[in-house]
């Protein structure tokens, strides 16, 4: 059978050209969006008087049959099926005969494909949101259960100040929460309908595009047909969204990979999310997290590649745009898996709270020593210097800072008094950081309250 556009051609396509051009092998996954879009279009054509209601009903039920074939895995693609749009229309013809040829009246694959992709992505975005909510939920559950656990917080990967483990868990959760918000925003922006733009210049049969938009659940029709067929900003946005979310997952993974090493020993991954070594019997490797970290590069690469595809394109539809699908599918598949693996890994790992606590050292309270003096009215710059000298004094004597006597401290500043001994209490240090967003029990509890309510509402 000839292709759907074969009328003006006398020669045949080169066979390599045919497979080069073909996109059914990857765009078949949009079959449902394509059917739903076509059914809405048939309704609009009937409204515009191009189809009788009987013809419309024939097309709609014929399209249902095509959909059933995809659903049950029985759809048989022919070598001449160039993409999902031509494949569905060809199969519709098998079922309903010549009337199938009326479906594409005033429509082009240009407005069709742009519509299908938006429909497909809108549904996927809901799954992505659900996976994010589950991941955030996993972090919040742990944060609530393990709020007593304290650990070193790091900057530059150097011990910095004591924090609650829950505070770290929630810091990841907040970045995922922002990802969920961004996902919602970009799906809102994407929710404009290209269908009814024709090939580029608009629809000549005055189909009611507002009706189409409503039927397909779009906010409104796109306001310009040239823009309608060419706009792929939503693809760029979802690729960026996937990239940024992967960066957040990568940071989470990297933190836990480090903490799972014997040198830290803060966490241990469950067997379900680890693998062994084929050579070294003792090994338990954090492959789940390493794969998430590694796949970040792949998702980012898809985004960079697609931006290069867009760069230099003239207006309206160009076949280059067929290159929009594989990176989008791959990024969505990859991040769907990563979000679920991250949730599983996070909710099943065990922590070693003794090891976390034992890794705290007095010098992590040097800032608290400075702050002690601030509370006695000494300017911070001066107290910072005094605390630095206390660090040095302890270091030169080979003792912990807490072992410096009151007399020692008083040689550094006269404002030290007997209550200075209380500086060396990690819990106290942590709970002093009680301004909104801090690591104190009260402010961590507040974060848990807000995120938990969000998860429950989603
Ligand atoms: N398979 C094509 C794509 O994915 C569909 C649009 C084809 N349009 C055209 N004018 N050849 O972009």
From TrEMBL:
Enzyme Commission code: 4.3.2.1
Superkingdom of origin organism: Eukaryota
GO BP term (any one): L-arginine biosynthetic process via ornithine
InterPro entries in UniProt: Arg_succ_lyase_C, Argininosuccinate_lyase, Fumarase/histidase_N, Fumarate_lyase_CS, Fumarate_lyase_fam, Fumarate_lyase_N, L-Aspartase-like
GO terms under cellular component: cytosol
Argininosuccinate lyase C-terminal domain ranges (all copies): 364-430
Supply the NCBIfam families for this chain. argH
Q: List, alphabetically, the PANTHER family matched.
A: ARGININOSUCCINATE LYASE
Report what the protein is called: Argininosuccinate lyase
